[in-house]
Amino acid sequence: MTPEFAPPSDKALPIWPVAQGAPIPAQANAGTWPAATGFTGRRGEICLLPDAQGGLAGALFGLGDPAQATRERLGFARAAALPEGDWYLAAPVPDPDQAALGWLLGQYRFTRYKTAPAPKARLVCPEGADAARIQAIAAGEYLTRDLINTPASDMGPDQLEAAARDLAQAVGAEITVTSGEDLLAANFPMIHAVGRAAQQAPRLIDIRLGTEGPALTIIGKGVCFDTGGLDIKPPSSMGLMKKDMGGAATALGLLKMLAGTGAAQGRRIRLLIPAVENAIAGNAFRPGDVLTSRKGLTVEVNNTDAEGRLVLADALALAAEENPDLMISLATLTGAARVALGPDLPPFYCDDDRTAQALSDSAMAVADPLWRMPFWDPYEAMIEPAIADLDNAPPGGMAGSITAALFLRRFTEGAGRYVHLDIYGWQPVAAPGRPKGGVGQGARAILHALPRILP
């Protein structure tokens, strides 16, 4: 799908936004119909208005209580459930940009395998909204969702590389890819170890956009399917593992947003994706193996299902060698984060208070929630086993998201600042602006915060 607004047209039908408890606008000519249907203006509530011939004359849309918007700032997404046709806002809304973006995000459907895609309602971009910027943000999110929703049979490392190449060409970026046995020659041993058992070769995708200004390096976990390796997952845990490349998908969507909104201008953007499948074969890496990373740190593999941090570690070490001003990793990394905060509130880790505050503020401002968690130094001992420098899966199950973040931080020495997002990448139940399925998390918050965190 492509996010798009409808062109202005005399045939477009009006939507009348109504706050909860507010009177119905007289111009809507609604009469007693809203009261008869029980319409009260609750957030997301829709009341279709008939004309004299029994056709559609327009609709009322409930804004709810504006003082309680918080997480529902994109509540206008529910209006995308209106009947097929073109619609326009017949009265102002408090934030036309949010209303327009909410509509586009709510309109998304994954239609790749549908023989008859569902019809959709289209919105004329509201007056005062920045149509080009909103469409660019929505396009980045659509890309992320499409990539996550595509099953691993059609989204392995080969296809993820192809998607990255398409995006790089579209935004005018340079791309290089190191794959297969070349990973060993280029000193990416842990990416190679995790992905070597799969039919499609492991690889490191490296995209660069811009040559001047402060440097931002984004690292996205690209595990295209995760069986758990020899520590195989049970079926109940493997069913959604096509989404284990959600960090890479979100990173690619973010790059599309940065380029489409002009935010990439005046900055040096680098995107690294270690793309692998964690498969099972005779040459799969084993529990108890000790791997030597690109940085030289040794890692004891105490669980082959904790593979994401291994591939990220080599990519982070490469990124840190250039001393970028800011490094951000995006990864569907731990179940512990979901237990602690649920599916739609990803934790993030950052030692720099000003950067963390900017991200927290932006997350609330654009309804892309994040919650700061600590790099808790006393837990460093938990990731240090007896026979190697690091343990990829500390025993005991305590503080799993924190210890994973601490593990990654060991490979970021040299970066100006480091932010890690432990995302889920999946919407289990449909919500405003987030249909059930793959979803980007954190990208819009990063985009909004960028002027403050990387001016």
Give your account of this protein's structure.
This protein has 455 residues and is an alpha/beta fold. The protein has 2 domains: 13-107, 3-Layer(aba) Sandwich (Leucine Aminopeptidase, subunit E, domain 1); 139-453, Aminopeptidase (3-Layer(aba) Sandwich), CATH 3.40.630.10. 30% of the residues lie in helices and 21% in strands. It has 13 helices and 19 strands. The mean pLDDT is 94. One of its GO terms (biological process) is proteolysis. Keywords: Aminopeptidase, Hydrolase, Manganese, Protease. Pfam families: Peptidase_M17 (PF00883), Peptidase_M17_N_1 (PF21337). GO terms for molecular function: manganese ion binding; metalloaminopeptidase activity.
Topology diagram in text:
Elements: E1 13-19, H1 33-37, E2 46-50, E3 56-64, E4 85-89, H2 96-107, E5 121-123, H3 131-149, H4 157-171, E6 174-179, H5 182-185, H6 189-195, E7 203-209, E8 215-220, E9 222-226, H7 235-238, H8 246-261, E10 268-278, E11 290-292, E12 298-300, H9 308-320, E13 326-331, H10 335-341, E14 347-350, H11 353-365, E15 371-373, E16 390-391, H12 400-409, E17 418-422, E18 426-427, E19 437-438, H13 443-453
Cα Rg: 23 Å
Which architecture of the largest domain per CATH?
3-Layer(aba) Sandwich
Per the principal axes of the C-alpha atoms, what is the gross shape? elongated
Low-confidence stretches: none
Condensed summary:
It holds the Pfam family Peptidase_M17. The protein is an alpha/beta fold and 455 residues long. It contains 13 helices and 19 strands.
Highlighted features:
Leucine Aminopeptidase, subunit E, domain 1; 21% strand; five-stranded mixed sheet; manganese ion binding; 2 domains; Aminopeptidase; 13 helices
